[in-house]
Amino acid sequence: MSKRHTRAIFFFITPFGVLFALFYLIPILYAIWQSLYTVKRSGTFGPAEDVFGGLVQYRQVFSDGPFWQSVERVLLFGAVQVPIMLGLALFLALLLDSGLVQGRRFFRLVYFLPYAVPGVVAAIMWGYLYSPNLSPFTAVTSNADLLSPSLVLWAMANVVTWVYVGYNMLIIYSALLAVPTEIYEAAKIDGAGAFRTAWSIKIPMVMPAIVLTTVFSIIGTLQLLAEPQVFRSFSSAVSSTYTPNLTVLSTSGIPNFHLAAAFSVVLALATFVLSFSFLKLTQRKGVQ
Description:
- This protein has 288 residues and is mainly alpha-helical.
- It has 2 domains: 3-52; 63-284, MetI-like fold (Orthogonal Bundle).
- It is built from 13 helices and 2 strands, in the order αββαααααααααααα.
- Strands 1-2 form a two-stranded antiparallel ribbon.
- The longest helix has 33 residues, at 3-35.
- Keywords: Cell membrane, Membrane, Transmembrane, Transmembrane helix, Transport.
- Residues 71-278 form the ABC transmembrane type-1 domain.
- It is a multi-pass membrane protein.
């Protein structure tokens, strides 16, 4: 490789490398470093001093019951919400690609529009719709308290689904557009109907896009923050430790930044393990 090509490679990758280090690697390393410290006071009212504590914060994390309850809560949330959301996204993408829908550009925009609404704004809007005293749908809210402890998690799941169905639909629909039309023509010649074509050709061809959206959804589930934070204003069932990220936020507000950093590191590792395990599982099934 010539020196000219080497300089060109460094020229193009340097901006990415600098931004990647500044906004990804350095914050992660800083969080790990902070998680290894603890606060020590000399006397009851003595000044606080940061001292090296090793794994003290991590022992507290793994013995923190509310934190692990919040992890179980978001895992249950993801196990129900993610398949429903991606199933709807796949259905809408197949519907747009089927040729049965007129005005595809209009419906693509309509489906994507909720994603353009900021998550906090969407949560506030749905919070008012769920509130028995404020909702225009009193016939529903008077018979079912959607902000009760048993239903508030699924009320938030509805908000997340409403926001992200269109986003995931566009990813899957873009993958459908990349499928060669010759494959559909061959299937039609062989006598395959619309349902058979979708099931045996379209879905397998867009499986990489479905895997991608699933990984994004797993990461987003464990990072759930805006919806529960907003819903705390509408429901007493949502506590300061309702989700892992809400636990991190409330811990840092005490303030106990070292424990919050330890929570963040453990949560990041859990997210990585789940995402990586799902990728390996899908790759293994693909090879088989």
